[in-house]
Amino acid sequence: MSPAAARKIEARHRPMVEVRHLSKIYAGGVEALNAISVDFPEGQLTSLLGPSGCGKTTLLKIIAGLIPATSGEVMVDGRPVTGPGPERAFVFQDFALMPWANVLRNVAFGLELKGVAQSEREAVAEKHIASVGLGGFEHAFPHELSGGMRQRVGLARALAVNAKVLLMDEPFSAVDEQTRRKFQEDLLELIAREHKTFLFVTHSIEEAVYVSDRIVILSKRPSQVSAIVEPEIGRGRDPDQIRRDSAYLDTVETIWQSLKRYLD
Ligand SMILES: Nc1ncnc2c1ncn2[C@@H]1O[C@H](COP(=O)(O)OP(=O)(O)OP(=O)(O)O)[C@@H](O)[C@H]1O
Ligand SMILES: [Mg+2]
Asked: DSSP state, 144?
């Protein structure tokens, strides 16, 4: 992308998450990230695409404050990240659902930690359980749910604490293609409804092109930003029509050509 085009993107949306010269070398010497710098604009869904093992989960975990960087800095809403915080929520399948607690308590858990009264936190939790399509499952336990449903519990919990930034690590990877497409539609609806900043890791180029405002393509480990693509696929139409459209297919092909060189 040209510097002029990059400036145009930056001018339109202020960055909610700013990653500056971030490096991560794990104990044992694996260099996962090498001075990576990238912005994630407010109110947008940005996908991270890159070869397996390039450091996507590492980057998300550092932004979440779950692990420290070796050097460099992450700013969220203008403030440096020094640990986990309520303005960021990590969503991925099975992540930290409490197996002994039902859906309602799992979703209300972040509010429980904040000391919100039981009746109030349950009312908020019920609203978000319904909004992710799990109404009626409030009293089910995690082991009684499918993988996709558990992922929705994680999403409802992130929404209940009203996080500004949702960090999603391959949230749809464990579901069949049909369910995945339904989730993609639900996600687009959620984005339209809630003004939040989404960072979304996926292995699927098609999925990234379909749901993203912006796609950051990462190189092989230690990863750096290899390209940034902004799909313009004319959302809000029949999904099947979009997927047959040349704008969609061309973007998928361009990204594939850019990622292909990283295959061993
Ligand atoms: N806790 C850890 N200790 C040591 N090395 C690690 C640790 N976690 C990840 N790594 C290494 O860091 C590199 C990046 O891992 P990471 O999980 O961030 O990649 P990824 O892009 O998310 O991969 P995938 O697409 O397969 O999920 C890999 O080489 C991995 O082996
Ligand atoms: Mg990963």
From this structure: G
Give burial (CB, 10 Å; 0-12/13-18/19+) of 59: buried
CB of 26 sitting under 6 A from ligand 1: yes
Question: Position 24: which residue type?
Answer: K
CA of 6 to the centre of ligand 1 (A): 29
> Which pLDDT tens digits describe the chain residue by residue (264 residues)?
555 555 555 456 899 999 999 999 999 999 999 999 999 999 999 999 999 999 999 999 999 999 999 999 999 999 999 999 889 988 765 557 888 999 999 999 888 888 899 999 999 999 999 988 899 999 999 999 987 888 889 888 888 888 899 999 887 776 778 878 888 888 888 888 888 999 999 999 999 999 999 999 999 998 889 999 999 988 778 888 999 999 999 999 999 999 988 876
